[in-house]
Amino acid sequence: MEARPQPQNEAEVLAAGMAVLEDRLPPGWKIRSLSRRAHHAHFDALWEVTAPDGASAVLVVEAKRVVERRDAALLLQQLDALAEEIPGSRGVVASRYLSPPVRRQLSDAGLSFIDATGNVRLNVARPGLYVADRGADRDPWRGPGRPRGTLKGAPAAKVVRALLDHDRSWAIRELIEVAGVSTGSTYRVIEFLEDENLATRTNSGAVVVPDWVALLRRWGEDYGFVRNSRVTRWIAPRGLSNVVQRASSSTIRYAVTGTLAAANWAAYAPARSAMIYTADAEQTARLWDLRPADAGANVMLAEPETDVVFARTLADATGLTIAAAPQVAVDLMTGPGRSPSEAEELIEWMTRNESSWRS
Fold first, then answer.
1. Nearest CA-CA partner of 63 in 14, 104, 105, 112
2. Per-residue pLDDT for 39 more than 60?
3. H-run or E-run covering 73
4. Which of 36-45, 51-60, 246-255, 331-340 shows the lowest per-residue confidence on average (mean pLDDT)?
5. Is 168 exposed, middle or buried (0-12, 13-18, 19+ CB in 10 A)?
6. In a domain, 282, yes or no
7. Contact call for residues 62 and 76 (beta carbons, < 8 A)
8. Does 5 score more than 50 pLDDT?
């Protein structure tokens, strides 16, 4: 099928929506636009669908170029109020494009919808009419802006960490506040997680993670200790025990991850190297008496792209600041050598002791 041109405004959204519906009506059915003079001008459009026997119904149409999942409740309220002014009418959302999660949200709210790519769900009780069709599952007019379908980057890390660190259902505004991420970025991450079946929405719109292990593993596909940090390698001439001693009494900002941190929960084997996040690697190396190393390094200092690695840290029995368990687990999953095996040991411990690390 030849691609339709992109609707540029609400008038073009309405025209495209009517054309899509007209193409999909059963034989003998007709559709036409009604004048709004006899009604309030705040209707975007009134369409009349007529059955072969002459019975008809009015569709009250709300046109929006862009619809987000958060719009569903307000659209339902608006269309219900407008439809009450015309007995027997049915509210319909028309848009340029509706993503699969948005269509599910609209359907769950009981709303009919049409988009210009051919996604349709229309249910009219009298006369009996049900039209459903599937158009595009990806926006055909989306530009080359921010990539979708990934958990890469700082915003995704902050949202995922919030979801992993806390065992609760989230109102979006609360998740935005705790994660410290923009509204748009939060919605994009949640939409991706919904598409991946890693997050669900309750009837009230709250976000819930049904399987935190699956979320952690999926995050590990896009996140990495080395990939998401500027890593430098060093030698601790007096051994790791001296590094631990110096770090424990240090006032600089840091968080130990990897094997050293995991030993607080699930000791796998004695640590032969240290993985440490720090805001300033050069300063940290000077204070801790570390030497630069091209080979034989036993300390990796990582300057992270996001400060979420310092979120919700804790002190161990020696006073060492260690990263939160989910952060340590994902770093081990993507770390060198035996780190992935250590990650599995830690995840098993986290599964058995969820209440001790997840609030």
1. 14
2. no
3. helix 72-83
4. 36-45
5. middle
6. yes
7. no
8. yes
pLDDT at residue 341 tops 70? yes
Distance CA 335, CA 321 (A): 19
**CA-CA-CA-CA dihedral for 71, 77, 79, 80, to nearest 10:** 150
Bridge pairing between strands 291-292 and 207-208: unpaired
**Closest residue by Cα to residue 104 from 200, 212, 10:** 200
Give me the mean pLDDT over the 15-28 stretch: 94
Structure-token match 């719009």, residue found: 71
Same domain, 257 and 241: yes
Alpha carbons within 13 angstroms on the beta-carbon side of residue 74 total: 7
Looking at the fold, whether 74 and 33 belong to one and the same domain comes out as yes
Greatest mean pLDDT range, 4-8, 138-142, 168-172? 168-172
Do residue 176 and residue 253 come from a single domain? no
Burial 79-98 (b: 16+ CB within 10 A, else e): beebbeebeebbbbbbbbbb
Q: Do residues 349 and 238 both lie within one domain?
A: yes
- Chain position carrying tokens 């409740």: 73
Minimal CA–CA distance to 230: which of 159, 158, 290, 282? Answer: 282
Q: How far apart are CA 352 and CA 199, in angstroms?
A: 22
For residue 144, being part of any structural domain is answered with: no
Number of domains composing the chain: 3
Please report the pLDDT score of residue 145 as a whole number: 46
Whole-number CA gyration radius for the chain: 27
| Stated pTM of the model | 0.61
Residue with tokens 């900002």: 253
Tell me: do 266 and 312 sit in the same domain. Answer: yes
Domain that holds residue 196: 154-222
